[in-house]
Amino acid sequence: MDHIYFVAVGKATKSSGNQNSPPVRDPVSQETREVLQHFYIQVRPLARALEEENAGRIDILVDQEGRPHTVGNLERELGATNHFVIGPTISFAIPLRADDRTEFFQLDVHVCTPDLFDWQFILYSYADAWCILDLCAQNFGFSIDGTGLHLRVAEIEKTHPQDCLVHLTSDPEAMMRFLHLDANRFAYGFWTLHDLFSWVTRSRIFKRRFIKMTASGFEHRIFERPMHLVFRTEWLPQWVEVGADVDFGSQVDRTSLTREALSFFNKTDAHSDKILQYRVATIMLWKKIAKALPLKGAGLNHAMKSLMAHLQWRDGALVLIPTEHLYYDEVPSFGRDEGKTYVDEIVVPWVLAHWREAVALFNRSGSGGSTTTPLR
Predict the structure, then answer these.
(1) Helix/strand/coil for 226
(2) What is the average per-residue pLDDT within 68-83?
(3) pLDDT at residue number 217
(4) Nearest to 119 by CA among 38, 46, 22, 51
């Protein structure tokens, strides 16, 4: 297929002439859904605002294979002329008219993660709006992704960014209640981007300063996501009071919201267990290092204090830094995620080769009494 021209189809249309009716999809979406229902138990078109750019694309979420099939089977049944697969998404090029192979629409079939159909339907509908909320959530120590709403444990996130998450919920309504979002308004749908942006910015975690602070991080999304550009450069400047610190909820901070989340989702024990696991792993690692060092008594204690003061994990590598750690809890348990073999084969040999450099740094800093707690 040399050239494919995609046309805009599948946009929301008004029903029954009623301006207050929720958005309805074009019939082509229903046709493709009927075909997919032969192969999947759950099939649901993802929602978009009337004004949202769709570039001739229809998005459908599917779950629970009901009939064994191949992608080739789907392509034939859908009348597609080509397809490609990226991760869990299969994209089909389907002629807009059966007798014309010059104009196509793109059908993106998103295969849902098992047991997450309701969550991923909510998250992938108006997906750019959830990206905006996630940018704000990150500043409060939360993360919104395809598996749920998560809390990042502050004590661990700097040293274990991939292992610091406590899963809070994959229940869309519970998540919206916590974020102070109107679930009924979401279920109704949005006619315009203004309606959608108004709904997003009513969340208690939305702060305009977070969008400004992350402006540079927006750049790659701006090119790929026109809705972000509209939100940041057109809509926000028109509504200067939205998300300002004088708004309701301005007193919410990370500590208070963390405390509330742990209670709201009943995750206090999971949070405590995560911290305990980290601290136990840290202690066990330093004990292993102490056992490996060719020192005893005061010399060993001094070397351990030196390493604890200056050893750090940065960008996947062990480094010695000239500035001391202020607290024992800041000392990372290097390689915990990789397990015992990694510690034995990488961390300990590295420390044995560089502990003298750590002692020299410690001595030059003049810290006869370091604020770092020695291993006991």
Answers:
(1) helix
(2) 90
(3) 52
(4) 46
- Token representation of residue 336: 């915990």
Is pLDDT of 144 > 90? Answer: yes
Residue 204 near residue 252, CB atoms below 8 Å:
yes
Strand order through the sheet with 165-169: 142-145, 148-152, 165-169
Which of 280, 190, 198, 207 lies closest to 235 in space, CA to CA? 198
Cβ of 35: how many Cβ atoms within 10 Å? 14
Tell the residue number behind the tokens 């809890």, with chain if given: 329
Instruction: Please compute the mean of the pLDDT values over residues 236-252 and round it to a whole number.
Output: 72
- Which amino acid would we find at residue 7? V
In sequence order, the 6+-apart residues with CB closer than 8 A to the CB of 103 are 5, 6, 7, 95, 96, 97
| pLDDT (0 to 100) of residue 145 | 93
Count Cβ atoms below 10 Å from residue 68 Cβ, excluding itself.
7
CA distances from 298 to 27, 122, 291, 304 (A): 80, 60, 14, 10
Residue with tokens 């570039």: 55
What are the structure tokens assigned to 17, written together? 């002439």
Contacts 24+ apart (CB under 8 A), 35-43: 35/77, 35/78, 36/60, 36/62, 36/74, 36/78, 36/109, 38/66, 38/67, 38/77, 39/65, 39/66, 39/67, 39/69, 39/73, 39/74, 39/77, 40/64, 40/65, 40/66, 41/65, 41/66, 42/112, 42/117
Between the CA of residue 163 and those of 140, 153, 158, 229, 275, what are the distances in Å?
18, 9, 10, 32, 11
**Cβ–Cβ under 8 Å, residues 321 and 332:** no
**What are the tokens at 322?**
């000239």
Give, in degrees to the nearest 5, the angle at Cα 66 between 61 and 71. Answer: 65
